[in-house]
Write a structure and sequence with these properties.
Length: about 325
């Protein structure tokens, strides 16, 4: 388990001070996949580097399995760090070493018995699907393959926690997907807790259980991915979920829509999207719903459907129909044009 408690980090640059983290608290339970999303400069890298004390917090505590690692001596800290693997956007592989050596050299340095080194290298190269690449050099591999080597290298230390610092940011969408699948597999089959930072919403959507949104060194919103997706509260979260310009009715539509009625977004979670609610509305109430736009977000365990709908009708009937939808646990939000 990772627990960051009131962590602040200040950098002094010349006469200036930069507050990279301001009183950040966040817990990652054992076995979870938790992601931090934010724009550039939000403080994500500083935060993840505080987890293994690559960056020492100015104030606050970092607990790993209930031990405050900010108070440990060098030797004790080294031991805790062995439980924490890390992967990076730039892979950080040794260019002059083969795939196999990239995994075995750090194990030798850690003092892992010789007979175990080969076993572990074989095992984890097999898990990441690179058993046939032992003797290749990093520059003979694709970006995705390099990241797989980096993941195998991290796993070979048999960590409890894997930190991922923008691990898929340099990869194309298909390769990103395959690396995310691998991280899911590592979490599920090896029980490794994953804490990641990213600026890509898709990463959060596909593999995270919980997400924290960062802005200017602070966590502005945090929760289960499903809750954040279906009902984002903070402006920054809305920008990630709905895009910079928010939910908008396309101009040509806005001109043609009847002036009466309401434009609403309807959010459906999981199975509720299967019922023909708009047909029911038209049948049960004196309203005419028409779909302006829509889409489905596939999250790790569930899907969230969103529809932008114009409900035409007299105000009282429209309001009744909205109440009906809310009673069916559909989230209804009015869109102001
Ligand atoms: N070593 C450092 N010295 C001085 N300032 C730093 C240092 N590291 C980070 N900062 C500053 O702290 C703030 C947060 O940076 P950080 O790299 O953590 O953000 P980020 O969200 O990871 O951004 P990016 O995605 O661009 O890496 C920025 O203003 C940055 O300039």
């Amino acid at each position: 388990m990772i627990s960051l408690q009131h962590v602040s980090k200040t950098f002094n640059v010349g006469k200036k001070t930069v507050e990279a983290l301001k009183d950040v608290s966040l817990t990652v339970q054992k076995g979870e996949i938790v992601g931090v999303i934010g724009y550039s400069g939000a403080g994500k890298s500083t935060l993840i580097r505080c987890v293994n004390l690559l960056e020492k917090p100015t104030t606050g505590k970092v607990l790993i399995n209930d031990v405050d690692i900010t108070s440990l001596n060098k030797k004790e800290l080294q031991k805790v760090r062995q439980k924490i693997g890390m992967i990076f956007q730039g892979y950080n592989l040794l260019k002059t070493a083969t795939v196999y050596e990239n995994i075995t050299i750090p194990l030798k340095l850690e003092g892992v018995p010789k007979q175990d080194i080969k076993k572990r290298a074989d095992k984890y190269l097999n898990i990441v699907g690179l058993s046939d690449k032992h003797h290749m050099y990093p520059n003979q591999l694709s970006g995705g393959q390099k990241q797989r080597v980096a993941i195998a290298r991290a796993l070979a230390h048999e960590p409890e926690i894997l930190l991922s610092d923008e691990a898929t940011s340099a990869l194309d969408p298909n390769t990103t997907e395959s690396i995310l699948d691998l991280l899911l597999q590592v979490n599920k089959e090896l029980g490794i807790t994953i804490f990641l930072i990213t600026h890509e919403l898709d990463v959060i959507k596909r593999i995270c259980d919980r997400v924290a949104v960062m802005q200017n060194g602070e966590i502005v919103e945090e929760g289960k991915v499903l809750d954040i997706f279906s009902n984002p509260k903070h402006l920054r979260t809305k920008q990630f979920v709905h895009g910079e310009s928010g939910i908008k009715v396309p101009e040509h539509f806005a001109e043609e829509l009847p002036k009466r009625g309401k434009i609403v977004t309807l959010t459906f979670i999981g199975d509720s999207s299967k019922d023909p609610f708009l047909a029911i509305l038209a049948k049960e109430f004196d309203v005419l719903p028409s779909i302006i736009a829509g889409g489905i977000d596939q999250l790790k365990d569930q899907s969230v459907g969103k529809l932008l709908v114009h409900i035409d009708g007299e105000t009282a009937e429209v309001n009744k129909s909205i109440q009906f939808l809310e009673e069916k646990n559909i989230l209804v939000e009015e869109v102001n044009q």
